[in-house]
Specification:
By secondary structure, the protein is of the alpha+beta class. 55% of the residues lie in helices and 12% in strands. It binds fe (ii) ion. The site of fe (ii) ion has 7 residues, from helix 1.
Length: 200
């Protein structure tokens, strides 16, 4: 099985979110890559050495793999959406039109998404998905990295709501401002591209 490789991100100066915070956060992303690869190595080792004798450990490694794997992919989507500087969604955007048709207005969607991000308790992710089967958007929360991932739906926008994302800059009580600043920093063109790929 191929090993996972770290992606590099070109993130410029952000509003509210410090370069130091991004630097530290990228180290956590590296940890997910390292741990996912480590699980793959350990599975080979334990299966080769004594598959039956190691069955409990092997089972637990399989169980935890989705935590590490989704930790990689969630962060790649999060950091990618902050690359290239803040860029608005164009008025002719297919994503914007589709969202307006479904949510009534783009502002309706954005207000509901921000509210979910700020008010949902616990560590995890605020996510906008596109469900190709039903051809509709879904807004939902993912606990940790992996609990609540929607099978078959494609994430379009992922906002990291673990405290490591914002406490260094905002304090725990500053979650609402962090969410506001994330959207002020967001490159909506990346989200538009994510939607185009998800819709195919
Ligand atoms: Fe994170």
């Amino acid at each position: 099985m191929k090993k996972f490789e770290e992606q590099k991100f070109n993130i410029q100066t952000l509003k509210g979110i410090s370069a130091k915070n991004i630097e530290e956060h990228l180290k956590l992303y590296s940890g997910y890559v390292k741990n996912a690869n480590s699980i793959l190595d350990m599975l080979v080792k334990y299966n080769t050495e004594d598959m039956t004798g190691n069955s409990y450990v092997i089972g637990e490694l399989h169980r935890r793999f989705s935590f590490e794997y989704n930790g990689i992919r969630n962060h790649e989507m999060f950091f990618s959406s902050l690359e290239g500087g803040a860029k608005p969604l164009s008025s002719g955007s297919a994503f914007k039109k589709a969202m307006e048709a479904e949510a009534g207005s783009f502002d309706n969607f954005l207000a509901a998404f921000k509210n979910m991000a700020v008010t949902t308790r616990g560590i995890g992710w605020a996510v906008l998905w596109y469900d190709q089967k039903e051809k509709q958007f879904i807004v939902s929360w993912v606990d940790e990295q992996h609990l609540g991932q929607l099978n078959g739906a494609t994430p379009i926008l992922m906002l990291d709501m673990w405290e490591h994302s914002y406490v260094a800059d905002y304090k725990p009580s500053g979650k609402k401002q962090y969410v506001e600043d994330f959207f002020a920093n967001l490159n909506w063109q990346v989200i538009e591209e994510n939607f185009k790929r998800a819709r195919v």
